[in-house]
Amino acid sequence: MFSFLGIYVLGRDTAVYSGSVIDVFARVGVSEEAVRSTLARMVKRNLLARHRQGRKVYFGLTGHAEDVLRDGHRRIWETGAVNRDWDGTWTVVGYSLPDSRRSERHDLRSQLVWAGFGLLQSGLWAAPGSKDVDAILAPLGLGEHVTVLTAQARKPTESADLVEKAFDTSGIAAGYRAFLDRWGSRRPLPSAPDDLARQLLLHTDWLQLVRQDPHLPAEHLPEDWPAIRAEKLFRSLARTYEPVAADLAAAVLDELELRPVPPRDES
To answer: What is the mean pLDDT of residues 17-36?
Structure first.
């Protein structure tokens, strides 16, 4: 759903009719029930807002969703497959939350992973470079429970040791190799009905990899790091699928233009 919203809703000032979203997702084997459940869940999480026109219900992005999707867009199209500009520093985050706040602890961990942090030891996370941890903490309201430091490795600790300890580099590499195996053939996913389905599946596979990749320093990665080849393949296929997929989506999607609310006259 994030892939779909990022491609066809972000930046358009429109909402999409639920029935047409169901039609799109049927192309990739997702049931109507699953789509409706996902849309309802995203409304509860303040990611989507309902807009009614007659008997139809349309779904548009909230400000929170736009922030999430723009961040994803930057990670996919701007950040790059490897970190070649690392300055040798680490952002270190420590926290302590009781079991009664397990849900908030889970949310914090999820946000740290998305931001490129790896677990060094219980309650202590690290990420290469400077990270805006305040932006992560602000929506969660956990600032008083967290300690944030900028640090450098000192002997006997080496930065390479931190990479190996905090991040599953072999698992990350395996994910990229699986992506290359799935999408690197001459005609990827021949069973998919059309390029709109392939586009959504391609972007979803890539987004999952990006979410799990902490963008580690190139100097501490193997020379044959598969992310570089995988990124080139993703960009090439994305360009290939885009024209036909856009035409198919335009024919299927029922959109409602969202007019900006005029400012109130306070005079």
So the answer is: 96
Q: In what order do the strands lie in the sheet with 48-53?
A: 48-53, 56-61, 14-17, 255-257
CB 118 within 8 A of CB 127: yes
Provide the pLDDT for residue 210.
87
Domain residue ranges in the chain: 90-152
Angle among Cα 206, 208, 214 to the nearest 5 degrees reads 100
At the top level of CATH, which class does the domain 90-152 belong to?
Answer: alpha beta
List of residues 6+ apart from 17 with CB closer than 8 A: 56, 57, 58, 253, 254, 255, 256
Helix (H, G, I), strand (E, B) or coil at 93: strand
At residue 189, the 3 state secondary structure works out as coil
Distance CA 13, CA 19 (A): 19
How far is residue 89's CA from residue 127's CA, in Å, rounded to a whole number? 9
CA dist., res. 236 & res. 69, Å (int): 21
